[in-house]
Amino acid sequence: MSLAVRCRGLVKKYDDVIAVDGLDLDVNVGECLGLLGPNGAGKTTTVEILEGLLSPTAGDVEILGKRWETDEPWLRQRLGVSLQQTYLPEKLTVREMLELFRGLYVEGMSVETAIDLAALGEKADARYDALSGGQRQRLAVACALVGAPELLFLDEPTTGLDPQSRRLLWEVVTDFKARGGSAVLTTHYMDEAERLCDRVAVVDHGKVIALGTPQELIDKL
Hints:
Layout: E1 3-14, E2 17-28, E3 32-36, H1 43-50, E4 58-63, H2 68-76, E5 79-82, H3 94-102, H4 111-117, H5 133-145, E6 151-155, H6 163-178, E7 182-187, H7 190-196, E8 199-204, E9 207-212, H8 214-220
Parallel strand pairs: 3-7, 3-8, 5-6, 6-7
Antiparallel strand pairs: 1-2, 1-4, 8-9
């Protein structure tokens, strides 16, 4: 099976602090892989390296068979990224925001399709500062999807959301995967991993300490 993500021996150090410590990880094409672990486990640092936002101290990373060092423009056109904290212009409407992000990609979906995927039709002309927390999170994911990416990164997308907002966002991710997309999801929540992920890597102190399907990991508890 071909790989959407392959990393070997990934290390990230900040002075004397080791955030990622020799991490190995594969994500299959068409798979949603969850990174589960406590705050400070190294999940976000790992994802930011995979996204090309941080350079590793050591290790080897391939994304869709390419490398950030030589293929960044190609990769940027094929990735969608929803960060742990997303700061979007407060005075733009949902539609204007998606038009802005759509303009970054040569190919992609229509803005209206992205609005529908994120269930934001009733808020399409509402400004960002008028949206609820759940609506803002769905918009952030829609901005990551509007370029029709092959690989989607989601860093704790439902933290702080109420149960209904979480379920709505889960539906957006489930739809993306059903259309053949690959995804990497960081989360604190086992129920979220069970709902969305084909496999889960449990990360602690910058290492993968367990890997399997959600049910396999639950059975080991």
